[in-house]
């Protein structure tokens, strides 16, 4: 049985002010094409379908359109769970309609869907809270899916019977998963866990959460170790970290596939992919990454000369850019105009002024008998180590004049 695992779509997300919607449309179409080309039997999306609890209409339309295409109008089952960016109620709300197309949403950790038959394509045979078993006719064995949408303390208390604040998330989830696996996951089927959590291998590398994202980890209270995963599980489909990671122990892969696009400049240079998993009963899961090509690359770059920066920008039109300019003086308006005219994807310009002038030593005093403009010059030199340029002085004159006119 072949599965496509993806996560952290963050539909509707912007890079600062810059919309990524067109890129998201392209990469969603690419994922659909990969699912068809690889002839996958099941698709798992492990959380953070949206970027916010209240996504824009265009993001909602893109999600439903993509999942419908992935399901091939009901011929292929799709399981999509909520992440920490998603509203669980919003994810669960279309469930009754979505199930008719083979799309199974899990917004809440306790959700129990109803058994269903999609005529001629597959059957949902057994269900429980956070569990479903699917039988696809061309395989003699079913797939069992343990599903835990993002679960914070409030959701755990409400939906998993988590009452004792001293009880760790680790133990609550371990007991829940072990109970489901012990009841449903024997070696006559294939067994998968899909969840959106901050999970590490015990004693392994501490993985950094994505820059600019809502953090899950608060100290170690919300940390789950991979040794909590039941031994019956052959593959764990994680979501949350935006870079591909394999944190499994032993023979059962535990995978973060990463996001389909780079969503912050800390992800600059990362290869993005989906994971294709092949599963058989009582055998080790085999997986491989399929690289995604769509989306504009994020690039952090640094220059000392404006001319050099402008040439690079002309030669790299497809990138989204965080541009650092080192100079002896502050950038002028004409410099900024040249830079922006050279490229439509500049997200940040970071000026680094390297020229330092000693002014106002610790023992010196400020001459308060100067006029306001000279006081401004002294302040600027003391703070930035150089004289203000003519454009700044002209702007200061305009502000000072307007202020005096208002006082009159």
Mean pLDDT: 87
Query: Which percent range fits the helix content?
Result: 25-40%
Major beta sheet, strand line-up: 7-8-9-10-11-14-16-15
Backbone CA Rg: 27 Å
- SS class: alpha/beta
Number of strands: 21
Strand percentage lies at 15-25%
Give a short overview.
Helices cover 28% and strands 24% of the residues. It has 10 helices and 21 strands.
Characterise this structure.
Strand 2 and strand 3 (18-19) form a beta hairpin. The strands form 5 sheets. The protein has an 8-stranded mixed sheet, covered by helices on one side. Strands 6-5-4-1-17-18 form a 6-stranded mixed sheet. The model is unreliable at 357-362 (pLDDT under 50). It is elongated, with a radius of gyration of 27 Å. It is α/β, with parallel strands linked by helices. The protein has helices at residues 21-37, 57-70, 88-92, 95-98, 153-159, 169-184, 306-315, 333-342, 372-384, 390-407; strands at residues 2-6, 14-15, 18-19, 42-46, 78-81, 103-106, 117-118, 122-128, 131-135, 143-148, 190-196, 198-200, 223-225, 235-239, 245-246, 254-256, 273-278, 286-291, 298-303, 320-327, 346-353.
List keywords for this structure.
single chain; 408 residues; alpha/beta; 8-stranded mixed sheet; 6-stranded mixed sheet; 28% helix
């Amino acid at each position: 049985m072949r599965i496509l695992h993806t996560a952290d779509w963050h539909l509707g997300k912007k890079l600062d002010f810059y919309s990524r919607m067109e890129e998201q449309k392209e990469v969603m179409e690419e994922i659909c094409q990969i699912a068809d080309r690889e002839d996958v039997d099941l698709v798992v999306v492990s959380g953070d379908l949206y970027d916010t609890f209240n996504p824009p209409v265009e993001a909602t339309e893109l999600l439903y359109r993509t999942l419908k295409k992935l399901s091939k109008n009901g011929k292929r089952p799709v399981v999509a769970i909520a992440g920490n960016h998603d509203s669980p109620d919003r994810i669960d709300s279309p469930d009754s309609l979505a199930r008719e197309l083979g799309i199974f949403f899990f917004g809440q950790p306790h959700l129990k869907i109803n058994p269903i038959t999609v005529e001629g394509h597959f059957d949902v045979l057994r269900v429980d809270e956070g569990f479903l078993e699917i039988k696809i006719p061309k395989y003699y064995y079913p797939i069992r899916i343990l599903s835990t949408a993002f679960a914070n303390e409030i959701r755990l208390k409400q939906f998993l019977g988590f009452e004792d604040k001293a009880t760790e998330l680790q133990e609550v989830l371990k007991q829940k998963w072990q109970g489901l696996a012990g009841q449903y996951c024997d070696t006559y089927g294939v067994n998968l866990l899909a969840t959106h959590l901050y999970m590490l291998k015990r004693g392994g590398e501490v993985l950094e959460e994505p820059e600019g994202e809502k953090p899950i980890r608060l100290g170690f209270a919300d940390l789950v170790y991979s040794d909590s995963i039941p031994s019956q599980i052959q593959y764990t489909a994680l979501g949350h970290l935006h870079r591909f990671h394999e944190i499994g122990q032993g023979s059962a892969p535990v995978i973060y596939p990463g996001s389909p696009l780079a969503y912050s400049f800390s992800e600059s240079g990362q290869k993005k992919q989906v994971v294709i998993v092949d599963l058989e009963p009582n055998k080790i899961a085999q997986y491989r990454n399929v690289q995604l090509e769509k989306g504009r690359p994020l690039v952090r770059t640094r220059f000392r000369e404006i001319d050099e920066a402008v040439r690079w920008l002309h030669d790299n039109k497809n990138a989204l850019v965080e541009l650092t300019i080192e100079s002896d003086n502050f950038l002028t308006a004409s410099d900024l105009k040249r830079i922006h005219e050279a490229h439509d994807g500049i997200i940040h310009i970071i000026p680094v002024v390297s020229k330092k002038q000693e002014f106002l030593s610790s023992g010196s005093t400020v001459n308060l008998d100067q006029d306001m403009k000279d006081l401004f010059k002294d302040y600027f030199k003391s703070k930035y180590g150089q004289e203000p340029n003519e454009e700044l002085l002209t702007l200061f004159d305009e502000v000072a004049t307007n202020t005096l006119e208002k006082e009159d």
